[in-house]
TrEMBL record:
The lineage of its organism: Bacteria, Bacillati, Actinomycetota, Actinomycetes, Micromonosporales. Residues 10-111 form the STAS domain. Belongs to the anti-sigma-factor antagonist family. Pfam families: STAS (PF01740). PANTHER family: ANTI-SIGMA FACTOR ANTAGONIST TM_1081-RELATED, ANTI-SIGMA FACTOR ANTAGONIST TM_1081-RELATED-RELATED. PROSITE patterns: STAS. This is Anti-sigma factor antagonist. It comes from Paractinoplanes deccanensis.
Length: 114
């Protein structure tokens, strides 16, 4: 798995994930999210367009990230999940809790504070 972070002029951060998000790679995402969540009022978009597979540890990292962002006065949004991952997020009940957008651009354009 590969994770990259890009900051934006509005202080939001896009965390792009590529590959399988599973028990073997969860530490990379959790560590990266932990670093960007240490900011005041974190605004994080997780780009899932390159995720091929996600297990419960990957889902857990997203939930923990969302909860920490909210506790810090910010938000975490998910963007561009594959059809499979979108169905998984729906099935486990995350879509009512964590906002999901069709694209990163859509997530960036939403001016709702969270």
């Amino acid at each position: 798995m590969h994770v990259s972070v890009v900051g934006n002029p509005d202080d939001s951060v896009v965390v792009t994930v590529r590959g399988d998000l599973d028990i073997d790679s969860n530490t990379v995402l959790s560590t990266t999210l932990g670093q960007v969540l240490d900011r005041d009022h974190p605004m994080i978009i997780v780009d899932l367009s390159g995720v091929n597979f996600c297990d419960s540890t990957g889902l857990s990292a997203l939930v923990v990230g969302h909860n920490r962002a909210r506790a810090g006065g910010g938000w975490l949004r998910l963007a561009a999940p594959s059809e499979f991952l979108g169905r998984l997020l729906d099935t486990v009940g995350l879509t009512p809790r964590i906002p999901v957008y069709a694209t990163v651009a859509d997530a960036l354009a939403d001016r709702n504070p969270g």
